C-alpha cells in the first residue's frame, strides 16, 4: 500500500521559490518518473516527499494520511541517493541490514532478509566487504539492497544510475524495472534522462522550472505532447520545430515534426542539402539544411547511402505533424 | 626513454628528501648522542661522533637532581587534560558550524584563528596577573586552562574540517532508513567522526606537550612539566651540555614514541584530512 498525494505543494529556499504550486497523485503500485532539465526541482520535489525538506506550503499524503509534519524516519519510505550514501564504516551486510536494525527486527529475520536481498542483487560474495572495496555498480546494488530489505510504502530514487557507464546503466534500468514488476511497490524515480523515463515509467511527470508541464503515460507524451516544452523534451533525437510561412500553411504558429516522421522521396515538399550524415547501422541520422526552413533532423531506419553535400528531398508525414499556437500550447 | 628520465627524477627527489630529512633530524640525533657523553667529551673539539666512551651517568644525575618522573606526570596531566577539555568545548562548536553554517561561520572561524596571530608575550603580563590573583600560578588546573585556550582555535579548525567532510547524504540516508536522532548519532555520526577526533586529539597532545612559553612562565615547581625540566639545565655557564641533552632526550622520548605509533593519524591530522 502506498499512494502518494501532493496538494498545492510549495517550496522556497530563502526568498527563492523553487516549486510554486504542484498537485499530483501517484497511485499505489505505480512507477512514476519525474523528468526535466537540470535545476527544474526534481530532487527538491522528491526530497519533499521523503521529508528531507520541509514544505513551505501545501500538504503531502501517503495512503491518504497527512505526513506533511512527519519526520522522514517515520514515513516508511526507502530512498536511493545519487551518491549511493552508503555507510562507509559498515560492511555490505551492515549497510543492507541497517533499516531492519532500526526496526529492531529479530536476528533471524534480519539475516534471512539480508541474504535474500544479496541473492537478488548478486551481492552474496561481497557481504563482508566495505563499500570502498566495491565498484560503482556494486555500490549501486548495495544502495538498492538497503532500500528493498524492508517493505516500504514506496521507493524513492534520485538519479540512481547517473554515475554508471552506459552499458551498466541499461542493465540496472532493466533490473529496477524487474524489481518493480516483482515487488509491485510504488516507485518514484527522478532522472533527467528521457530514455530512462520512457522505458521505465508507468507515468511520467515532465517538470520545468518547478511546474508540471504534463503528466501522462510515455506513449501519451510521445503522441500528444501538451506543449512545445514536452514535445521538445520527449523523443530522441529532438523534434524539429518550424515557424513562419511553413507553419502558417498549417494554421499554426509553430509546427513540430519528429525526425522519424519524414519520408525521403525524389520530389518531396522540401529540398535541402545533407550537412552531416550519421550512420548507426540500424538507423541513419541526417542533418539537412532545408531552403527557407533551416536545419532539420531526419531519422531513417536502416542503412542509407547518403553523404555530406548531397541534395535530398523530404516529405513530412502529414498525419504526424504537431501544431502549436503562439503560446506554445498544442492545438 | 621517458621511463629512464622519470627514474632519474625519482632518484633525485629521493636523495633530496633524505638530505632534508637528515638535516632536520640531525640536531635531535646529536642531542641523543651527546646525552651519552661525559661533560668533557660533549664539548671536545673536534666533536666526537660515535667513538667515545658511552655512559649513562647523565641520566642518573638528571633523575637524581630533578625528578624526571614528576615532570613527566605533570606533562601528561597538562597535555592530556587540556586536550580533553578543548575537545569538550570544540566538538559542539565545530559541529554546529559544520552542519548548520550561517553567513558568519567563516568569519567566526577566521576570528578564532586570528587570535593565534598575536605574539603570546603580548598578553603575558595580564594573564600572569590574572593567574596570580586567582591563585592559579603553578597549578595543574591553571596550566590546563591556558594550554586549552591557546590550542582551542586549532582544535576547532581541525574538527570543523573533519565534520565538513561527513557527507550530509549519509545522515539523510540514515533518517530514511528509519533511524531516530539518537540512533543516527550512535550508529552513523559518531563512527564517522571518531577518526577525525582521534587525530585532532593526538596532534593537540603533542602541541600541548611541547608548549614552552606558558608552561615556563606560569609554573615553578609543583605543576612544572618537562619543558621546565629541560630549561633548568640550560645554565648560562654552559657546562651542562651532556646533562641538558639527557634531559631533552628524556623529555622528547615519550612524544616521539607516541608519534611513531600514530603516524597515520598524525599525517591525516596535519593535512587536515586532505590525505587518506
Ligand atoms: N538547499 C537549497 N538552497 C537553496 N536553493 C536550493 C537548495 N536546493 C535546491 N535549490 C535550488 O532549487 C532548484 C531546484 O533544485 P533541484 O536540486 O531540485 O534540481 P534538479 O531538478 O534535481 O536538478 P538536477 O537534475 O541538476 O539534479 C535549483 O535552482 C537549486 O539551485
Ligand atoms: Mg537533482
Please tell me the CATH architecture of the largest domain in chain A by its name: 3-Layer(aba) Sandwich
Percent helix of chain B: over 70%
Note the overall shape of chain B. Answer: globular
Question: In DSSP terms, counting alpha (H) and pi (I) runs of 4 or more, how many helices of chain B?
Answer: 13
Order of helices and strands of chain B: HHHHHHHHHHHHH
Distance N to C terminus of chain B: 33 Å
Strand content of chain B: under 5%
Under CATH at level 1, the class of the largest domain in chain B stands as Mainly Alpha
Low-confidence stretches of chain A: none
Q: Quick one: how many beta strands of chain B?
A: 0
For the record, the CATH architecture of the largest domain in chain B stands as: Orthogonal Bundle
Summarize the structure.
Chain A is an alpha+beta fold and 331 residues long. Chain A contains 9 helices and 18 strands. Chain A has helices at 42-50, 92-102, 107-120, 136-148, 166-183, 194-200, 218-223, 228-233, 245-248, and strands at 4-13, 16-26, 31-35, 57-62, 65-66, 77-80, 154-158, 186-191, 203-208, 211-216, 240-243, 254-257, 262-265, 270-279, 283-290, 294-301, 311-316, 322-324.
Question: Would you mind describing this structure in some detail?
Answer:
- The complex is a heterodimer of chains A (331) and B (276).
- With 331 residues, chain A is an alpha+beta fold.
- Chain A has 2 domains: 4-231, Rossmann fold (3-Layer(aba) Sandwich); 237-324, OB fold (Dihydrolipoamide Acetyltransferase, E2P).
- Chain A contains 9 helices and 18 strands.
- In chain A, the strands form 4 sheets. In chain A, strands 6-7-8-3-9-10 form a 6-stranded mixed beta sheet, sandwiched between helices. In chain A, strands 13-17-14-15-16 form a 5-stranded antiparallel beta sheet, with no helix packed on it. Chain A has a 4-stranded antiparallel beta sheet with strand order 2-1-4-5, covered by helices on one side.
- The longest helix of chain A is centred in the middle third of the chain and has 18 residues, at 166-183.
- Chain A is globular.
- Chain B has 2 domains: 2-57, no CATH class; 70-271, Orthogonal Bundle (MetI-like fold), CATH 1.10.3720.
- Chain B has 13 helices and no strands.
- Chain B is globular.
- Chain B starts with a helix and ends in a 6-residue tail after the last helix.
- The mean pLDDT of chain B is 86.
- Classes of the chains: A alpha+beta (331), B mainly alpha (276).
- Chains A and B meet through strand 6 and helix 2 of A and helix 8 and helix 9 of B.
- Bound molecules: adenosine-5'-triphosphate and magnesium ion.
- Magnesium ion is lined by residues 42-43 of chain A.
Amino acid at each position: 500500500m502506498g499512494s502518494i498525494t501532493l496538494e498545492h505543494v510549495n517550496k522556497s529556499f530563502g526568498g527563492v521559490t523553487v516549486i510554486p504550486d504542484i498537485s499530483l497523485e501517484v497511485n499505489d503500485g505505480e512507477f512514476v518518473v519525474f523528468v526535466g532539465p537540470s535545476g527544474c526541482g526534481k530532487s527538491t520535489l522528491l526530497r519533499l516527499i521523503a521529508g528531507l525538506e520541509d514544505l513551505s506550503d501545501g500538504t503531502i499524503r501517503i495512503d491518504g494520511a497527512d505526513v506533511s509534519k512527519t519526520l522522514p524516519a517515520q514515513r516508511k519510505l526507502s530512498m536511493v541517493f545519487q551518491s549511493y550514501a552508503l555507510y562507509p564504516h559498515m560492511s555490505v551486510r551492515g549497510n543492507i541490514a541497517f533499516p531492519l536494525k532500526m526496526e529492531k527486527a529479530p536476528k533471524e529475520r534480519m539475516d534471512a532478509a539480508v541474504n535474500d536481498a544479496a541473492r537478488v542483487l548478486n551481492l552474496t560474495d561481497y557481504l563482508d566487504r566495505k563499500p570502498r572495496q566495491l565498484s560503482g555498480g556494486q555500490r549501486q546494488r548495495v544502495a538498492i539492497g538497503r532500500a528493498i530489505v524492508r517493505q516500504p510504502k514506496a521507493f524513492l530514487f534520485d538519479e540512481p544510475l547517473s554515475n554508471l557507464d552506459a552499458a551498466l546503466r541499461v542493465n540496472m534500468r532493466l533490473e529496477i524495472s524487474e524489481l518493480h514488476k516483482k515487488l509491485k511497490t510504488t516507485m518514484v524515480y527522478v532522472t533527467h534522462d528521457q530514455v530512462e523515463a520512457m522505458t521505465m515509467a508507468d507515468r511520467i511527470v515532465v517538470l520545468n522550472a518547478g511546474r508540471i508541464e504534463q503528466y501522462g503515460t510515455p506513449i501519451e507524451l510521445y503522441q500528444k505532447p501538451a506543449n512545445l516544452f514536452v514535445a521538445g523534451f520527449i523523443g530522441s533525437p529532438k523534434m524539429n520545430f518550424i515557424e513562419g510561412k511553413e507553419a502558417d500553411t498549417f494554421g499554426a504558429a509553430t509546427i513540430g515534426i519528429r525526425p522519424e516522421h519524414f519520408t525521403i522521396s525524389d520530389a518531396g515538399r522540401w529540398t535541402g542539402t545533407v550537412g552531416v550524415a550519421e550512420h548507426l547501422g540500424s538507423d541513419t541520422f541526417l542533418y539537412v539544411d532545408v531552403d527557407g526552413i533551416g536545419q532539420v533532423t531526419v531519422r531513417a531506419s536502416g542503412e542509407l547511402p547518403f553523404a555530406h553535400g548531397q541534395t535530398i528531398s523530404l516529405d513530412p508525414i502529414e498525419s504526424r505533424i504537431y501544431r502549436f499556437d503562439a503560446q506554445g500550447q498544442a492545438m | 626513454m621517458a621511463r629512464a628520465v622519470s627514474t632519474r627524477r625519482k632518484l633525485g627527489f629521493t636523495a633530496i628528501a633524505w638530505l632534508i630529512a637528515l638535516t632536520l633530524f640531525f640536531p635531535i640525533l646529536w642531542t641523543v648522542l651527546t646525552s651519552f657523553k661525559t661533560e668533557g667529551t660533549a664539548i671536545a673539539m673536534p666533536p666526537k661522533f660515535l667513538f667515545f666512551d658511552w655512559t649513562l651517568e647523565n641520566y642518573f644525575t638528571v633523575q637524581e637532581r630533578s625528578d624526571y618522573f614528576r615532570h613527566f606526570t605533570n606533562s601528561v596531566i597538562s597535555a592530556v587534560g587540556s586536550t580533553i577539555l578543548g575537545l569538550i568545548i570544540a566538538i559542539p562548536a565545530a559541529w554546529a558550524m559544520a552542519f548548520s553554517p550561517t553567513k558568519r561561520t567563516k568569519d567566526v572561524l577566521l576570528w578564532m584563528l586570528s587570535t593565534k596571530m598575536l605574539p603570546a608575550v603580548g598578553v603575558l603580563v595580564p594573564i600572569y596577573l590574572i593567574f596570580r590573583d586567582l591563585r592559579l600560578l603553578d597549578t595543574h588546573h591553571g596550566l590546563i586552562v591556558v594550554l586549552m585556550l591557546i590550542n582551542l582555535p586549532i582544535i576547532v579548525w581541525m574538527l570543523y574540517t573533519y565534520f565538513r567532510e561527513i557527507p550530509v547524504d549519509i545522515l539523510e540516508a540514515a533518517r530514511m532508513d528509519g533511524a531516530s536522532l539518537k540512533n543516527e548519532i550512535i550508529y552513523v555520526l559518531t563512527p564517522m567522526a571518531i577518526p577525525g577526533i582521534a587525530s585532532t586529539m593526538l596532534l593537540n597532545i603533542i602541541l600541548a606537550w611541547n608548549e614552552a612559553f606558558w608552561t615556563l612562565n606560569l609554573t615553578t615547581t609543583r605543576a612544572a612539566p618537562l619543558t621546565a625540566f629541560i630549561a633548568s639545565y640550560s645554565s648560562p655557564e654552559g657546562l651542562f651540555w651532556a646533562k641538558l641533552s639527557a634531559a631533552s632526550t628524556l623529555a622528547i622520548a615519550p612524544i616521539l614514541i607516541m608519534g611513531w605509533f600514530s603516524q597515520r593519524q598524525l599525517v591525516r591530522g596535519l593535512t587536515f584530512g586532505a590525505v587518506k
